[in-house]
Every structure is written in structure tokens, then in C-alpha cells.
Amino acid sequence: MKLSLSLVVLAGVMGYTPIAIAASAPAPHQPKGVKPGVIGAVATNREGSYCHLRFPAIQGRTLGTDKPQLKPATSADIIDFYGPCDHDPLGKDEIQSQIRLQEERKAED
Hints:
By secondary structure, this protein is an alpha+beta fold. Helix content is 37%, strand content 17%. It has one domain (2-108). The radius of gyration is 16 Å and the shape is globular. It starts with a helix and ends with a helix.
């Protein structure tokens, strides 16, 4: 039982390693215009203008500041975004979207 649990934990840690590596160095096959901080980008059309992007959420304590920062790539708080490949994870639109989500969560509690 202990060996099985150890193997499951080891497999989980190894599964997050490629995500962390992808966040530190953009892959050469990413669609054009992908912004820093995006840990996964897959073009969903032939032109490569519409993508499925994955990136960490913005850190809550930096959300309303002049210098918002993304959570670590190994965080469980990952955003799945479908839209333009050049969407900025720290751009004005994304900040407003995450502020709205944060307010909705507070209202539900």
C-alpha cells in the first residue's frame, strides 16, 4: 500500500514538471503572439489566430495593483481560456475578468 501511494505521488510530481518547464521557456511550436506566462497554447483554427490557452490565475494580493503577478505555473489555479492567441494573462481584460470572478465568489460565501 505504501509503495503504491509513493508511486502515485511520484507520478503526480513528475506530471507537473513539464508544466513548470513550459512556463519558463516558451515552446518553439506555439502559435504566434502568445504572451509570457502562458503555459499551454494550442491553435484551434488553421490561421492560428484562435487558441486554447492555459495560464495561472493572477495572485489575489496583486490583482488590484499596478503590477499584477501570476501564480506559479505549478499552482492548481489554472485558467482555461478560449479566444485570441495573443490574449495577455496580465492584460486589462483578464484583470477585470478575474476581479469579477473574485467578487462573485465572495458574494456566494
